[in-house]
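input
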Amino acid sequence: MYFRLAPEYYDAKRRAARNLRAHVLPTNREVALELDKLASLLEGERRVEKLKELREDALEVMVMLEQFSPVLVGSVWRGTARIGSDIDIRVFADEPQDVIKELNSKEVDVNMELSGKDRLKRYVHLHFKTRRGNSVEVVVRPLEEKYLKETCDIFGDEVKGLTIPELKKVLREDPVRRFVPE
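output
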């Protein structure tokens, strides 16, 4: 997973189990914690600087999309980002086109894709680069999901993320703070 040979935890675990002839797969949490250790070992201080940069870029994007109640989620929120990680932001709008128009008005070149197999949970994913070249994925969710609580597939806790004021505070007080449950 570190070298991005397997895109998802499930794929990586199955591949590793097959290669090692193991019958028991580790949990996603166990994989994530080991991946985190490996990234720290291989990237050292560069990883810390990259996390700060990614969080700064996330704030810039979130301010652009402030009217859509952006929330930073994923590895940049958690503090487990590594070199090559993208910035994951959720926004809330009933019309995804409104988010695209806002980004276009800021001269952001956006690629769009749909996800979700059923019509009830279909989201629009917007992909683009920050001015520093970091990858961003903005997922547009319906307004009705703004207060929906979601459980993390990796750590099993609630995905809370960071709002603009919360991210500003983290950047000011402890820019490499981690949000990983014990």
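quick obs: The first strand starts at residue 71 and ends at 73.
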